[in-house]
């Protein structure tokens, strides 16, 4: 006997915060940055976001966007607040005081101030040869 | 791969499909004048009515949150294999003289192997245990202070005969590992403490310095007591030597 009910619905694709972090990691671009310094005291509080962002920024894919960018880590021993200092090619500086920022927030702000300033490369049209045109 | 399996990959309570049941081609129920059910149906409906907790004003909703209670129960669950690993980690840590804890950047297995090779040359061996195992191992022990370091990506190396100066020198060159802290003969040391330790002279030099410091008051006392005698003796010697020089000069002339 056919049941009088029909099911409909949807499936959630998003994994919440992890999807958001993954999305931000994909668009990370270090091209405008000349030097990035991570300063944190490992025994300090609220250091997790700094350490996580350090792990994300040292990925091969992200480093390949600008191999000349120097990423330095300074381990402090004075319980100072953690920070990320970015020096741009243009001479500007950007300081993230990450004590009260979550990992996702730091990545979002990084993408807003650094990755988004990268101009997309213009597509260069390669002229086709006679042989290539003939093949078509 | 199904969406439900994808959900399990992300290790969180999600990917339960949102499903609605719809009435399709059946009699539309009259909500204003509901039909009186058959006795048996009525009994089943009454028995299957959901029993809700009496929410009293004293209890905060956070205390009866089902997700929180479920997560707490999950944390208390004991995994025997994890316990074995935790015990192993603790035993190795207690037996080792030097423990170096690094922050681990994103790296491939090949890069990790290269770093392990370099640290192996100075006597440090890699311990492949994650943060949960470290938490299980060190909670309630004297190494509880180390748990602050076991957040994010961490790598632990232990060894017995390790030269800290070499470790620090190597650590500067590593792009994938950052030395955070260490434990030296049961004593927790931050990076600056390790640098200070590496700058110390050898133990024999320090022992000699200690002996000198301990001897100093006695030496000073003996010097003070014999000062006048030694001064007199040296003056007399000087006088004798001057006199003999004077007589030899006279003889020469």
Automatic annotation (TrEMBL), chain A:
- Give the UniProt entry's GO cellular component terms: mitochondrial large ribosomal subunit
> What's the superkingdom here?
Eukaryota
Query: Which keywords does this Swiss-Prot/TrEMBL entry list?
Result: Mitochondrion, Ribonucleoprotein, Ribosomal protein, Transit peptide
The cellular location(s) given in this protein's UniProt record come to:
Mitochondrion
UniProt xrefs under Gene3D superfamilies: Glutaredoxin
Pfam families cross-referenced by the UniProt entry: MRP_L53
**InterPro entries under this entry?**
mtLSU_mL53, Ribosomal_mL53
Q: Does the record's keyword annotation contain Cytoplasm?
A: no
Q: Which family does it belong to?
A: Belongs to the mitochondrion-specific ribosomal protein mL53 family.
Recorded protein name is Large ribosomal subunit protein mL53
* Source organism: Halocaridina rubra (Hawaiian red shrimp)
UniProtKB/TrEMBL annotation, chain B:
Gene3D superfamilies the record matches: 3.30.70.1730
Q: Which UniProt keywords apply?
A: Ribonucleoprotein, Ribosomal protein
Which Pfam families does this UniProt record tie to the protein?
Ribosomal_L10
Q: Which domain of life is it from?
A: Eukaryota
Q: Name one GO cellular component term.
A: ribosome
Q: Which segments of the protein form a coiled coil according to its record?
A: none
Record family assignment: Belongs to the universal ribosomal protein uL10 family.
Matching PANTHER family:
39S RIBOSOMAL PROTEIN L10, MITOCHONDRIAL (PTHR11560)
Which protein are we looking at?
Large ribosomal subunit protein uL10m
Q: Which organism is it from?
A: Halocaridina rubra (Hawaiian red shrimp)
């Amino acid at each position: 006997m056919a049941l009088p009910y029909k099911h409909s619905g949807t499936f959630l694709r998003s994994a919440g915060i992890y999807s958001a972090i993954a999305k931000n990691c994909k668009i990370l671009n270090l091209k405008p940055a000349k030097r990035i310094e991570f300063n944190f005291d490992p025994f300090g509080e609220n250091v997790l976001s700094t350490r996580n962002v350090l792990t994300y920024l040292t990925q091969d894919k992200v480093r390949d966007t600008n191999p000349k960018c120097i990423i330095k880590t300074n381990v402090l021993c004075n319980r100072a607040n953690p920070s990320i200092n970015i020096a741009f090619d243009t001479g500007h500086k950007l300081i993230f005081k990450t004590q009260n920022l979550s990992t996702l927030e730091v990545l979002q702000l990084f993408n807003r101030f650094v990755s988004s300033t990268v101009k997309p490369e213009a597509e260069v049209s390669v002229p086709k040869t006679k042989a290539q045109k003939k093949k078509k | 791969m199904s969406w439900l399996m994808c959900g399990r990959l992300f290790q969180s309570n999600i990917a339960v499909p949102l499903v609605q049941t719809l009435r399709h081609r059946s009699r539309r129920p009259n909500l204003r004048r509901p039909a009186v059910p058959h006795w048996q149906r009525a009994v089943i409906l009454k028995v299957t009515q959901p029993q809700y907790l009496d929410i009293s004003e004293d209890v905060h909703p956070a205390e009866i949150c089902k997700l929180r209670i479920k997560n707490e129960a999950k944390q208390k669950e004991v995994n025997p294999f994890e316990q074995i690993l935790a015990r192993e980690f603790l035993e190795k840590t207690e037996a080792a003289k030097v423990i170096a804890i690094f922050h681990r950047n994103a790296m491939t297995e090949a890069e990790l192997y290269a770093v392990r090779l370099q640290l192996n040359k100075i006597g440090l061996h890699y311990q492949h245990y994650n943060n949960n195992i470290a938490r299980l191992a060190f909670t309630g022990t004297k190494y509880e202070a180390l748990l602050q370091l076991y957040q994010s990506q961490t790598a632990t190396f232990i060894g017995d005969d390790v030269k800290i100066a070499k470790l620090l020198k190597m650590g500067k060159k590593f792009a994938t590992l950052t030395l955070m802290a260490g434990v030296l003969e049961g004593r927790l040391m931050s990076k600056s403490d390790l640098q200070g330790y590496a700058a110390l002279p050898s133990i024999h030099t320090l022992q000699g310095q200690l002996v000198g410091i301990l001897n100093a008051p006695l030496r000073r006392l003996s010097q003070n007591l014999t000062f006048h005698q030694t001064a007199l003796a040296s003056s007399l010697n000087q006088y004798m030597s001057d006199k003999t020089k004077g007589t030899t000069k006279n003889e020469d002339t």
